[in-house]
């Protein structure tokens, strides 16, 4: 590979914060950005999940550290950013990956569940952007995870969908506010991706996976794609890498849609 291309995608000597680092897209993003040369601070409210990601990073001798932070708590997120800046001297990338999903019909969903989804998926991104803006002293890149579910309707995902639509609008507003400081702000709206978050569709009451139901679910989802594909966490992590790196220096306020063609924007 030509060195110029490697340079465009390199994160060497940069510091990245990744929320939702304990599993799924967040975990894969931690590993991908670290493989690209960044020192990555992985953030998750589940300390055990952080330890699992840490073990994967250690196995590859990647430069990572982990913090237990609840992204729905503004003070914790702001303190996290300040701590990273104090310890590392810089923050160049902030990836808001943390999210939760719950299946409920509109008529059935409980208020406390709606507020919980908003607190993580929507306010967690808001606090992440705010924290990043305070500590990115030499410009930087903020990347947030939205969803195709924020652009097209899915039964039983109303609360989830409205928070992801909010992330897209927040991204555009933040891009306008922070551009003068050299900070780019973009979002990614994935289609269906194989992560632990979607496993509720095929988990048995005893906690094991119903393999037949899982296969049926993935077959249905793949039919929504013209290329008959569903996503893997690495597909989204590589999109985060693009937006985090200099290869996307002319991109801000945009929504990338790695969704297999299920929705065209």
Description of the structure:
The chain is of the alpha/beta class. 44% of the residues lie in helices and 13% in strands. Strands 3-2-1-4-5-6-7 form a seven-stranded parallel beta sheet, sandwiched between helices. The two termini are 33 Å apart.
Strand order of the largest sheet: 3-2-1-4-5-6-7
CATH superfamily of the largest domain: NAD(P)-binding Rossmann-like Domain
* Major sheet characteristics: 7 strands, parallel
Count of beta strands: 7
Q: Report the CATH architecture of the largest domain.
A: 3-Layer(aba) Sandwich
Distance between the termini: 33 Å
Sheet/helix structural class: alpha/beta
Radius of gyration over C-alpha positions, nearest whole angstrom: 18 Å
| Highest CATH level, the class of the largest domain | Alpha Beta
- Give helix and strand order, one letter per element, not per position: HEHEHEHEHEHEHHE
pLDDT averaged over residues: 95
**CATH level-3 fold name of the largest domain:** Rossmann fold
Q: Helical stretch count?
A: 8
Weakly predicted, low-confidence segments:
none
What sort of overall outline do the alpha carbons produce when their principal axes are compared?
A: globular
Helix content: 40-55%
Q: β content, as a range?
A: 5-15%
Total number of domains? 2
Q: Summed up, what is this model?
A:
The chain is of the alpha/beta class and 265 residues long.
């Amino acid at each position: 590979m030509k060195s110029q291309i490697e340079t465009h995608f390199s994160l060497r000597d940069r510091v990245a914060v990744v929320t939702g680092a304990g599993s799924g897209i967040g975990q894969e993003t931690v590993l991908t950005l670290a493989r690209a040369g960044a020192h990555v601070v992985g953030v998750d409210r589940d300390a055990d999940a952080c330890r699992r990601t840490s073990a994967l990073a250690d196995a590859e001798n990647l430069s990572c550290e982990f913090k237990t932070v609840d992204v729905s708590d503004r003070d914790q997120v702001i303190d996290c950013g300040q701590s990273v800046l104090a310890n590392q001297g810089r923050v160049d990338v902030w990836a808001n990956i943390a999210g939760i999903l719950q299946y409920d019909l509109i008529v059935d969903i409980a208020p406390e569940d709606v507020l919980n989804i908003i607190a993580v998926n929507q306010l967690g991104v808001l606090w992440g952007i705010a924290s990043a803006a305070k500590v990115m002293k030499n410009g930087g890149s903020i990347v947030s995870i939205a969803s195709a579910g924020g652009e097209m309707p899915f039964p039983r995902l109303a609360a989830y969908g409205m928070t992801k639509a909010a992330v897209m609008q927040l991204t555009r507003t933040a891009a306008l506010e922070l551009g003068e400081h050299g900070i780019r702000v973009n979002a990614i709206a994935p289609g269906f991706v194989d992560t632990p978050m979607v496993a509720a569709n095929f988990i048995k009451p005893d906690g094991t996976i119903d393999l037949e139901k899982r296969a049926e679910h993935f077959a249905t989802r793949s039919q929504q794609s013209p290329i008959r594909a569903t996503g893997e966490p690495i597909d989204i992590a590589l999109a985060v890498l693009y937006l985090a790196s200099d290869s996307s220096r002319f991109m801000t306020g945009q929504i990338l849609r790695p969704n297999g063609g299920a929705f065209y924007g």
